[in-house]
Amino acid sequence: MKGRVTSFYQKTLTALILSLASSLSNAQNFCVFDVLGMQGPFYNTMREYATLARKWNVELELKAYTDEAQAVADFNDGKCDIASITGIRAREFNLFSSSIEAIGGLKNAAQMKTVIETISRPEASKLMMQDDYEVVGVLPIGAAYLFLNDRAINSVEKIKGKKIAVLAHDLVQLRMAERLGFQPLAADINDFASKFNAGTSDLIAAPAIAYMPLELFKGVGNKGLVLNMPISQLSLQVVAHFHKFTPEFGQQSRSYFANLFDTLQKPIDAAEQEILYFFPAPDGEYDNYQALLTDARMSMTAEGIYDPKMISILKKVRCKHEPNNSECSNDKE
Fold this sequence. Notes:
Elements: H1 2-25, E1 28-33, H2 41-53, E2 60-65, H3 68-76, E3 82-86, H4 87-90, H5 95-98, H6 109-119, E4 129-130, E5 133-148, H7 156-159, E6 163-167, H8 171-180, E7 183-187, H9 192-197, E8 203-207, H10 217-220, E9 225-241, H11 249-259, H12 261-273, E10 278-279, H13 286-302, H14 308-321
Parallel strand pairs: 1-2, 1-3, 6-7, 9-10
Antiparallel strand pairs: 3-9, 4-5, 5-8, 5-9
């Protein structure tokens, strides 16, 4: 009898081990970019997402990357089945979804929420697929603001010719700098902040959540400011090799992230409250800045840098929230 019981437990243990091994072998590799690695907020968000995904019979094995270029390279090489990257990097996988970050495209978080909800609906699913890739989630990072080291740079005319640190790999940032009249200085995500803090560049565009971690207050100093006027709304995007997942996974995932918007926005709002010298555009300059952003966006759309369908959605959302704006009575976009 004892031998039979022992045999039973041995078989049960073997079955459990085999089951676990099978589960691990079927896990999808999830490459997560976060400048703070496993201790960062993005990684933590994706860890919670991975836990939820088990309800969809999807097992995600997370790997943290502090180097976004390496995360993208591994995703391209098939080492990652799914990756969480910035909207800037997502451009090569889906022009439509990445164009949510169009310069001057959205003015606030409420508009961003509406767009994310819109493109996360089942009716928009085809737009979230391009070639072998599917965008299975879009998350807010917050607005990109101009951080300046000198308050005397207080007009559209004075801002022209100033040095701005931009990510060298990003065509959009380079074109934006050119269109706005800046002098671009090539940088990467690891040193663009240090160029500003050291005074090598006069300004940078960054979200509020970068203010404390990257110590941007050093670059602003006592003489600079942060212009409280969004240049664009930034995003984190989750991109998957769609053939590695079930057909329904993409929609399940997009709906999950869309419903998470308010939760994700709270730390962004808190980060904005921490910014010192957070000033609006000077009197009479707001409209000039907006005209500059609009001209740049329309020009970049004509060049094929932004997706026209997304640009159209952004305008519809702007006009839904602010129907009395003059742009709502023309058909320029």
